[in-house]
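Before a colleague's protein record goes any further, I have to sign it off. My question to you is simply how this chain folds and whether the tokens agree. I do not need a full report, just your reasoning and any doubts. This is what I was given:
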Amino acid sequence: MDISQHRSVYGAFTGLVKWGVIGCIVLLALMAIFLV
């Protein structure tokens, strides 16, 4: 793989991690509101 492929894979990975963390935070906030 050359550097452009590495950069695109890294960009996709960081985007996935970012949206996964945001999703977990939203899920925990909703659980705190509706289950407590």
Q: What stands out?
A: Helices lie at 3-35. The longest helix spans residues 3-35.
